[in-house]
Design goal:
Blueprint (H helix, E strand, L loop, with lengths): L14 E2 L3 E7 L8 E6 L2 E6 L8 E6 L9 E6 L2 E7 L13
Length: 99
Amino acid sequence: MLLSYFYQDGFNKWDDHSDKWTISIPIAGAKKEDIKINLINQILSLDFDGNEFTYPIRKEYGVPPGTHAKDIHVSYEAGVLNIEVDKPEESKPSQIKIN
């Protein structure tokens, strides 16, 4: 189950994995230097001013408490921005023993 920290906007969807959340966002023709990603006060923001191939993109996602910049991994390949957010330990599923 995906926690409500991540807003689903109909175009881009966060995928829930056991140890991380991931999202892929197409940004055609961008240079990675033109894409700005910041984490401030538990808000992950994405900023791209646009170009002749893509409209400007401005997105903000709330991340769970305990998430730090070192927990966020970003790559940009073939026009697709991939973001992975490691789950804080308390957000990871754990097996509960039945007595």
